[in-house]
What does this fold into?
Amino acid sequence: MLIEQSFGRSIKRNDVVRQFWPAIVVFLQMLGLTLLLLQQSYGQQVEESRFLLDNVRVIVGDGTVLESAALLIEGSRITAVGSRSEIEPDVSVEVIDLSGKTIIPALIDSHAHLGYEGHTSWGAENYSRENLIEHLQRYAYYGFSAVFSAGSDPDALAYEVQQAQLGGEFSSARFLFAAGMAPPGQGPNDQFLTHTVALEKETGQRILYGVGSVEQAGELVREIAAKNISVIKIWVDDRGGSQQKLAPELYRAIAAEAVENGIEIYAHQQYAEDMPGLLDAGVSGFLHGRIGVGLGREIAQQLTAANAFVVPNMGLGELRREAIGSDPFLRASLPESVAARLGESAQRLREPDRIEAREAELRASFGHLLDANVDIVLGTDAGAVPDHFFGYTGHRELEIFVRMGMTPMQAIVAATSKPAQRLGLDDLGLLQSGYSADFVVLDENPLGDIRNTRSISSVFLNGKVLDRTGLAAGFVQ
Ligand SMILES: [Zn+2]
It folds into this structure.
């Protein structure tokens, strides 16, 4: 009986299908067209592309390198890495011979401040959805797959742009942001603070959370958790006396509540001597390494024991003194007037004026981090001050890493898999099967000279080549 009923329903359904088949076909065609338009409007390819990059040096991102290797890309993913004979793609796959070139995972900047830089001006007046997207595209242009903006973004707007990017509305580096915490009315550098406060007023959105008491610390962390923001940036800095420093009892309360809510705390601290207390509280990363005499062997070992990472952030001090506008690598993405100002300024040095004793101090301190196997992560603080540019500064920081004692391979790891792991970007930072196809094709081998990360032949994000020429044409206007 059950079978009969079932059979009966089945027949009936078939009748219905037969009767309405022409209408169903039209409907399915329209549905297909709608999906196609939807996909196109989200920038995704309708047909998954499938290609093999062959005969190329692959710097995996974990410290290993494969010579004359092949990389199979299907859609937005890497689906195989190894020798061509191991991968054996079917005959239909498009093979692109990259003899002589090198592929690295796209880079990640773990400390920046997006939105305020306008290139001819800097400040809250420049912060907009369009400017955020432009900054993310500047990162992409320079071969970055992601950037962490550290506690200076209006939360609702930042979230909206983040989601639009992830949805494929535009092609750029991924956008990560944090809630900022400091004593009430304090936080970023004095100039920056004026602009974040103005932007909060203008947008009616939250950027900074002023913490005045232990109770309030708990309440605010829960408020941030409710907004699904997974990182809090705290400022522990008196700015040379112009601001109030976040007290240990307050950062301890913030960190304790953050742990309860699965939130990570990254610190801006003015001095290395603040690091042990912050580590003790549970801070997981330091956005300003404070490399120098204050950071010795002992703190390095404490950092490792606590499994905390360090963004040395050394370019912030030195790049702003150089005539960077005359560097063609930067100039390619700047309006001519800005490049000229930075290249010809009498205040900027044509040649670095490094003092050997200071260099030795920095190298010794950096060496302690390396010896203790501390997770060193690339970050630049780009955008926190005028003329400290997105993407460009990341390549410069890599040069500094090598100058301070890293091998080029270590520097690349610090800019790829390490930040990906720390920022929870599970599918970035490595060239391995299953990872997002976000990588940079270089003309020259960066393992021989780290400055070769500048020799960008092409950038791929989500398996698609980025239109760098088109982007640069927009940037220089
Ligand atoms: Zn910063």
About this structure: The chain is about 40% helix and 20% strand. The domain at 107-429 is CATH 3.20.20.140 (TIM Barrel). The longest strand covers residues 50-59. The first helix runs from residue 2 to 41.
